[in-house]
């Protein structure tokens, strides 16, 4: 239940649907298995799995939704081998060369014939919506998975005016300054891992783990112009995380203090535990997100919005 990554989006205007309107919108596209000739399906699932019935989980003004993707696994090497075998068979039989257009047609036919026998896998992506604060946090480090969720939500609701959360100062510039000085804005603490990237074209990358980032070696890399592209941070003894230069939060960890609080409030049943976890997580994010944007110079809001 605890999110492990964050891709953050901001509503650019008032949310165009209510809680009462969102649930039936989600019910239009419930998750389902792939049909025999489908490469994948997308649909909404219950956020708490078998411990809930509704596709929309609501608590203390926060909404939780879950996108489930089922896809057939068809390795490229399998398709390639089958295509090569088919091409060799036709060329030997007909004494002619197979060119690209016909090759592509054969490939499509092979894919269609193999799909019904392919294994499937499922992925679930959670998103927390804070209507009062106007943001959506998606639990993924993949922009493609986040866009799948937002696109389907937009399709089901008819409108979803969101944009990626932007800040006024480049994260890499801020993180570089924090490592140089050994100090981060109030509430944030620089930890012991970072990625240093050369700003020159085709420049190198240095990954530092369990290092004193104030050491002469690290500082020398910064002196010659390298920039911090990823940095591990702690926030108020509540969170630890890796922030990257695209404002993506990875390896997010909610500390034991919050986990213990959720255990105490959740009671003995799993549904209660999940609900308590969701509430504490959402409230913590509501404090952390503005603190992060402030540390990066404040939120950059386009003119006219």
Provide a short characterization of the protein structure:
It is found in: Cytoplasm, Nucleoid. By secondary structure, the chain is of the alpha+beta class.
What gyration radius follows from the Cα positions, in whole Å?
24 Å
Indicate the structural class: alpha+beta
The major pleated sheet works out as: 7 strands, antiparallel
Low-pLDDT runs of 5+ residues are none
Based on CA inertia axes, which overall geometry fits? Answer: globular
Our measurement of the CA-to-CA distance between the termini, rounded to an integer number of angstroms, reads 33 Å
> What pattern of helices and strands is seen along the backbone?
EHEEEHHEEHEHEEHEEEHH
Describe this structure in words.
The protein is globular. The protein has three domains: about 5-70 and about 120-165; about 75-115; about 170-295, no CATH class. Helix content is about 35%, strand content about 25%. The longest helix has 26 residues, at about 270-295. Strands 1, 2, 3, 4, 5, 6 and 7 form a seven-stranded antiparallel β-sheet that branches. A hairpin with a 2-residue loop joins strand 3 and strand 4 (about 60-75). Helix 2 (about 75-95) crosses helix 3 (about 100-115) and helix 7 (about 255-265) packs antiparallel against helix 8 (about 270-295). It has eight helices and twelve strands. The protein has helices spanning about 20-25, 75-95, 100-115, 145-155, 170-180, 215-225, 255-265, 270-295, and strands at about 5-10, 40-45, 55-60, 60-75, 120-130, 135-140, 160-165, 190-195, 205-210, 225-235, 240-245, 250-255. It is found in: Cytoplasm, Nucleoid. It comes from Halopseudomonas xinjiangensis. Its main location: cytoplasm.
């Amino acid at each position: 239940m605890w999110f492990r990554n964050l891709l953050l989006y901001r509503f650019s205007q008032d949310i165009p649907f209510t809680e009462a309107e969102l649930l039936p919108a989600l019910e239009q596209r419930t998750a389902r298995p792939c049909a025999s000739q489908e490469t994948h399906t997308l649909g909404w699932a219950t956020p708490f799995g078998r411990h809930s019935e509704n596709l929309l989980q609501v608590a203390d003004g926060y909404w939780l939704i879950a996108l489930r993707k089922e896809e057939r696994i068809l390795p490229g090497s399998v398709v390639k081998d089958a295509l090569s075998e088919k091409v060799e068979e036709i060329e030997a039989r007909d004494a002619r060369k197979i060119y690209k257009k016909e090759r592509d047609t054969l490939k499509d036919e092979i894919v269609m014939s193999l799909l019904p026998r392919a294994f499937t896998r499922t992925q679930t992506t959670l998103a927390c919506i804070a209507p009062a604060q106007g943001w959506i946090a998606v639990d993924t480090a993949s922009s493609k998975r986040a866009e799948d969720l937002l696109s389907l939500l937009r399709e089901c609701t008819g409108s979803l005016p969101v944009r990626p959360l932007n800040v006024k100062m480049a994260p890499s510039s801020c993180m570089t300054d924090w490592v140089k000085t050994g100090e981060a804005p109030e509430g944030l603490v620089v930890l012991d891992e970072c990625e240093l990237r050369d700003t020159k074209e085709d420049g190198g990358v240095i990954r530092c783990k369990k290092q004193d980032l104030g050491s002469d070696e690290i500082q020398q890399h910064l002196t010659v112009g390298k920039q911090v592209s990823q940095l591990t941070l702690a926030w108020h003894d509540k969170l630890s995380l890796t922030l990257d230069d695209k404002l993506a939060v990875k390896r997010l960890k909610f500390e034991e203090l919050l986990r213990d609080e959720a255990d105490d409030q959740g009671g003995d049943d799993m549904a209660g535990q999940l609900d308590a976890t969701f509430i504490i997580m959402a409230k913590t994010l509501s404090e952390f997100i503005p603190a992060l944007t402030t540390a990066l110079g404040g939120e950059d809001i386009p003119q006219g919005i």
